Amino acid sequence: MVASRYLQLTLLAVVAVHSLALEQPSDATEIHALGDTAGEYTGVRGKRVEGFAPSAVIPKGLVVLRWAQSSKEQCSEACNEDSKCVGFKYGGGGCAIMGHPSEMPTPKRLKDLPADQSPEFKKMVGAKDKFYNRDQKDMAKALLTSMIPKMSSSDLEKTQEDAARKEAAPIPTTPRDPKKAAPRARKQLIRIAEYNLKRKYLLQAQKNLPAKVKKDIATELRELPGDTKPGSQQQLLNEKIRSEWIATKTAMRDGVRDKVEAFKRDKLDILQLKLFKDLGVDDAMRQLNAQEEKAADAFQAVSAWKLGRENLGNDAIASSTASLKADNLPNCDELKPMCKKDIRIRRQCPHSCRFLQDEKQEAVDRLVEAEKSIAKRRERKAAKENKEYDVREDRLLGQKN
Asked: How far are the Cα atoms of 378, 381, 387 from residue 384, in angstroms, in the given order?
């Protein structure tokens, strides 16, 4: 891909320069370099050409419009015929027609390249242009122009066809070495097992953990002792959620570690050998790559889940009547005078309103004692009446006898 792009760029540069070059003689076989001295501009130093004056300095802003292997007279004629020519530079058996550069819009520099471009192209993006002086640029253009006649149109087309054919040809692959592929396959099998186990544990926790935590929280809050800090139920609930999630993560980590160790000890080598035997090394590695990618995606889809208050719904907020013995509100001491009047206060502040229970229990105890006293009095009265009845019966029997 990279080689074909370089070839395309080179062909475009050659065609662009060729379109600007003058027609050269058919017997031109050598490459004549231009002179580098300023005195060779518009003629050889000390000699004149009709209509042109020699100059020791090339005026600024002039560029080479085209180059030809010709005499000074031919150069002057070519310059006269070209409306853009302002002078020529002669030397080395050839001349360069000089003129002002045509105004062309400067292309915008790319900030980003497509993903399929090579690292070399990416390094070129945003880099500063390398500086070349005028003589170096003229020499480069002259060399490119002299190379054009050596390649015909058919040669260019053939070169392009060869590049396209090489680019479209599939890259030959070398079969994998089983000895080198086996360690990679075992590592992939371990990663696949880890992904699947982690996903399994997370799905189980997502399904069962919220209901279990709701039940445990309700039981613990209901059975809180009376001396618990008033209104601390919400704090205890949040701490319970956090501790349950930490315990669950620890259990999942330990479970994954233990099962992976058992898999490595009992099944890993056998499974790897069986895959290579049944599918072949190349097909087995391709299948492992696909399975690992699928397992990783499935785990990533559920890996963001964690136990939090959002998973418990309304149960994530402690009720104002959750505890049966401890005060559920932080200001229960201030609400103590209202215990007798409002049943809601008695339910929200059972510890502060416990004096009502004590008073009620005392009343019950007094009632029980009174009932016991009445029962004893009745027993004594009944015993006395029975005794008097027996005495009367005895008297009646004695008189009759």
From this structure: 10, 5, 5
83-123, pLDDT tens digit by residue?
Answer: 888 888 877 667 888 888 777 666 666 666 566 666 666 56
The 3-state DSSP class for residue 234 equals: helix
As a whole number, mean pLDDT of residues 343-352 equals 88
Q: Is 43 exposed, middle or buried (0-12, 13-18, 19+ CB in 10 A)?
A: buried
Task: Indicate the domain borders of the chain.
Answer: 2-168, 178-316
Query: Which candidate, 165, 203, 383, 155, places its Cα nearest to that of 299?
Result: 203
Tell me the two tokens of residue 393.
């019966």
DSSP letter assigned to residue 58: P
| Token pair for 209 | 């953990």
Q: Is the dihedral of CA 226, 231, 233, 239 positive or negative?
A: negative
Using one digit for the tens of pLDDT, what is the confidence trace for 30-41? 323 333 333 344
Separation of alpha carbons 258 and 261, rounded Å: 5
Residue 67's nearest CA partner among 148, 7, 151 is 148
CB-based contact 145:69 (threshold 8 Å): no
Half-sphere exposure in the Cβ direction for 364 (13 Å, CA): 6
- Check: CB of residue 24 under 8 Å from CB of residue 69: yes
What is the pTM (predicted TM-score) of this model?
0.49
Instruction: 112-120: list long-range contacts, CB under 8 Å, 24+ apart.
Output: 116/1, 118/1, 118/2, 118/5, 120/2
Which residues does residue 88 pair with via DSSP β-bridges, in sequence order? 97
Helix segments in 304-353, DSSP class H: 343-348
Q: How many whole angstroms separate alpha carbon 303 and alpha carbon 195?
A: 10
- pLDDT tier at 21 (50, 70, 90 boundaries)? very low
Tokens 């020519």 map to which residue?
A: 85
- Can you tell me the distance from the alpha carbon of 12 to that of 236, in angstroms, rounded to the nearest whole number? 76
Q: Which tens digits make up the pLDDT trace of 142-161?
A: 877 776 656 677 877 887 88
Q: What is the pLDDT of residue 36?
A: 37
**376: number of Cβ within 10 Å:** 10
Instruction: Take residue 361 and report the two structure tokens written for it.
Output: 């229990």
Nearest-angstrom CA–CA distance, 53 and 251: 95
